[in-house]
Amino acid sequence: MTVADLSPEEQLRYARQMVLPEVGAAGQRKLRRASVLVIGAGGLGAPALLYLAAAGVGRLGIIDPDRVELSNLQRQVLYDSADCGGVKVEQARQHLLALNPDLRIDVYPEAFTSTNAAGLIAAYDLAIEGSDRFATKYLVNDACVLAGNKPYIGASIRSFSGMLSVYAAPGGPCYRCLFPEMPDPATVPSCAQAGVLGTVPGLFGVLQAHEVLKLILELGDPLVGTLLTVDLLTARFQKLRLPRDPRCPVCGEAPTIRTLAETGWACAVQASGAATAESVENEPASADQLPWLSVEASRQRPSLHWLDIRTQAEFDAGHVPGAEHAPLDQIERFAERAATRSGEFLLYCQGGGRTVRAYELLGPQLPGRLWLLRGGYEAWLRDRGAAASPSDGR
User: Fold this and answer.
1) Which pLDDT score is estimated for 2?
2) DSSP 3-state assignment of 325?
3) Is the pLDDT of residue 193 over 70?
4) What does the longest C-alpha to C-alpha distance in the chain come to?
5) What pLDDT, on a 0 to 100 scale, did the predictor assign at position 1?
6) Residues forming a β-bridge with 380
7) Who contacts 272 (Cβ-Cβ below 8 Å, separation ≥6)?
């Protein structure tokens, strides 16, 4: 394989990496022939996609059901303000082709489910798992193992730390070797509730892309059988041995999982109000019959008592003026006080999801006196921003 196998434009574009003896023209050809599926085009997937496209990975697949929102831009650096409201995978394709027009980019504006998982995994060489749903993480893992051990790079972050590994590689462990069963979502704070500094998913997304390039180019020591943990507050990096578990339910010696299945559980939402949307702060689909009020409708009820059920940190960062603070984990105390008060209450959280759980806890004690704010505090902020914007006629 010589430089002549590459076009003059490719030689110019990739000159800085091709000069590396470990890459060269042969390595660049490997990248051009490779295909990678990125599951989730958010905080992890966005930076990973940028670097995979820049490196010249010839075919990229992107699956994500969401649209770009203003709150994404703090960490999802693939998008800009003009993209808000647009289909996320379509906006991602436009930006990536602007960066590198010679790529093939397939987009799937849908969720990764048990229906499409096997076909998608089979169509690509490698995968990056960048979802914020535990159900999706386990589904990706099982699909890759059942596809004959197709490697994927999985990452998880929380606040200022995270972990990363190459799972389901031939001879290596899978995600269930580390976490055999999905945790109860009630024990895990939501992504919006826990918070994240944008550089944290940015770093892990870049590390995911880097592991992909190592696997394609057959360089160094990929994180197969190794778990990398990073605490970015202390700049502490640790590599921990992650062996295969012979009792693993999907890749062990006597597997019990032989077909793909999924659960609707998502981070920090009780099973009784399980979220089906990719973002756990969205209103659960199962809660359609609850007494939701839009921001506009709430203005028609000035006597409502607004009740903020978010954490103290979220409340301190900003809240509806005049709202009373009753954190969800202390909501029973509020119920005792509210029973002796008159009037109706409007519950809100960041995006709407947690209010369902609050309603379940308060409803029996305050029957007929509770409303839920559709879209939560973010909807209130958007409404306030729209009201403050100049009209088209100005």
Assistant:
1) 55
2) strand
3) no
4) 82
5) 44
6) none
7) 360
- β-bridge mates for residue 346, sequence order: 306, 371
> pTM of the predicted model, to two decimals?
0.79
Query: Which residue type is seen at 322?
Result: G
Our CA angle for 206, 208, 212, nearest 5°, is 115
Same domain, 219 and 295: no
Averaged pLDDT of the chain: 88
Residue 268, domain member (yes or no): no
Which of the four pLDDT bands, split at 50, 70 and 90, describes residue 383?
confident
Residues 237, 337 within the same domain = no
Give per-residue pLDDT as tens, 4-13: 589 999 999 9
Burial of 194 (0-12, 13-18, 19+ CB in 10 A): middle
Instruction: Find, among 29, 2, 109, 22, the residue nearest to 61 by Cα.
Output: 109
Buried/exposed 7-38: b ≥16 CB within 10 Å, e otherwise = eeebeebbeebbeeeebbbebbbbbbebbbbb
Sign of CA dihedral 211, 214, 220, 222: positive
Determine the structural domain holding residue 126 and report its residue range.
34-241
Q: Indicate the pLDDT class of residue 263, thresholds 50, 70 and 90.
A: low
For residues 296-313, average pLDDT: 91
Per the domain annotation, does 28 fall within a domain? Answer: no
Residue 289: Cβ within 10 Å count: 6
What contacts 256, CB < 8 A, 6 or more positions away?
249, 250
Do the Cβ atoms of 261 and 340 come closer than 8 Å? no
Under 8 Å between Cβ of 371 and 345? yes
Q: Report whether 225 contacts 241 (CB < 8 A).
A: yes
Q: Are 114 and 121 in contact (CB under 8 A)?
A: no
| Co-location of 237 and 326 in the same domain | no
6 vs 21: CA distance, rounded Å? 16
N-terminal to C-terminal alpha carbon distance within the chain: 63
Backbone phi, psi, residue 226, to 5°: -135, 135
177 Cβ contact list (under 8 Å, min separation 6): 242, 243, 244, 245, 248, 251
